[in-house]
Amino acid sequence: MQKAHVDEGVGGRAGVPPVVAGIHLGFLAAVVLASHHPVVFMGLFLFFLGYTEAYKRHQDRLILREGLLVAFFLAGLVTLGGLQKWWLQPALSGVDENVLHFVATALTAVTDNAALTYLGSLVEGLTPEFKYALVAGAVTGGGLTVIANAPNPAGFAILKHHFEDQAISAGGLLLAALPPTCVAIFAFRVLT
User: What's the pTM value of the predicted model, to 2 decimals?
Assistant: First the structure.
């Protein structure tokens, strides 16, 4: 019997066989197709957990804790967000779209952009330009801090061993993120 050839990956560790990558892509496609069927979705998720446990050799540790924290955050946002409409409607109803873009960019640096856009969606009677400014501002400021985007903490968890003391300097991140943020502001405000 001939042994399958597996390329060496980073650090001399065996690379992921194409069949394993294909199975992961299959799980991803199935989850997207089953996204509106919770029972099927949970079955696929449990089967995926079993698959990754059975074939640990070909994959990294799953980042379940960080994913669950994001899930709890989003569940809390949906549960408690609807109760915020009483102050959001009067606060946002008289704001200019240009000002809103910069306010949303700044707010995204201290809060999650999903929270910002969800809370903005609760305001009734918004123009398409207002909605665009809100989402563009939230996207623009998404890299200014680790907490700005839900994927940022997951990315930090993956990359933290590459940083000194396994920590990210908040000031260093802000300074490094300012040039691309300025490019994004220009792109969203001038080029569109």
Answer: 0.66
Residue 145 backbone dihedrals phi, psi, to 5 degrees: -140, 165
H helices of the chain, where?
A: 18-33, 38-54, 64-81, 85-92, 97-108, 113-121, 128-140, 151-159, 170-189
Phi, psi dihedrals of residue 151, rounded to the nearest 5°: -70, -20
CA atoms within 13 A on the CB side of 99: 6
Displacement of CA 16 from its chain's centroid (Å): 25
Pairwise CA distance, residues 168 & 173, whole Å: 7
- Cα(174)–Cα(167) distance, integer angstroms: 14
> How far is it, in rounded angstroms, from Cα 101 to Cα 137?
4
Residues with Cβ within 8 Å of 85's Cβ and at least 6 positions away in sequence, in order, are 122, 123
> Is-contact 123 87, C-beta < 8 A?
no
Task: Kindly report, residue by residue over 148-190, the tens digit of the pLDDT.
Answer: 676 777 788 888 888 888 888 878 888 888 999 999 999 998 8
Residue with tokens 């540790």: 61
What is the residue extent of each domain of the chain? Answer: 1-62, 64-192
